[in-house]
Amino acid sequence: MNDMKSIVKKYVGHRGQLKKAATGYSSKKGNYHSERYPEIVIFMKHGPEYITLIRKTVNMHNPEMFIELGTLHGGLTMGIMEGCSDVEIHSFDYKRSLSPGLSLIFFDNGVTCHRANLMLEKPSEDLVNLLTENKHRRKILYCDNGDKIKEVNTYAKYISPGDLIGCHDWLFEIGPNEIEETLRDFEPYDHEPYERMLAWTRFWIKK
Ligand SMILES: C[S@@+](CC[C@H](N)C(=O)[O-])C[C@H]1O[C@@H](n2cnc3c(N)ncnc32)[C@H](O)[C@@H]1O
Prior knowledge:
Blueprint: H1 2-11, E1 30-33, E2 41-44, H2 49-61, E3 65-69, H3 75-83, E4 88-93, H4 100-108, E5 112-115, H5 125-133, E6 139-143, H6 148-155, E7 164-167, H7 180-183, E8 186-189, H8 191-196, E9 202-206
Parallel strand pairs: 3-4, 3-6, 4-5, 6-7
Antiparallel strand pairs: 1-2, 7-9, 8-9
Helix pairs in contact: 2-3
């Protein structure tokens, strides 16, 4: 937590505004260049450097399932699909932003794209069922939806000890205070490379 506080102090101004340096390395947007389908380039809301970082964490944890909240155009989804083998991938969004071609490629590669609104008053049954029916499988739940605070606080309780939860926009849209209660059941997981690179993603492992 001290490290996070010092990052906030260094990069967030006294009125909560971002200081310019904070956006230096970890860009918020980028393109994912497919490694298997050279003609495919997908705009994503993660800088390209995130693919390497997140894949490393996923491969280290070696989960059976990777569940992404917030598919958008499928850039990060494809990055995980191409860089992490033997992982069942699910991605949720309430909009259909995937191109028909990419939907087919995902289907062929066993990636399941779900359409569900995750921010209604009641937690999404589709997502809760997926998490609870697979409670004995090693999972990563990655929150990159419209409201990260609500997503983490709502869905963290449905994953099991040993599973990871992660989120994007750490210290920008969501920080330790907003998920303090939830984080009591978790410990930081592989934070060092993300902190070193001032990346906007963090993962925690459930105790
Ligand atoms: C930041 S983008 C996801 C970016 C994607 N993971 C990437 O790396 O390119 C957030 C996505 O969340 C979706 N979203 C926003 N509110 C939602 C909600 N209430 N339920 C489901 N999806 C939602 C949006 O449609 C959008 O595609």
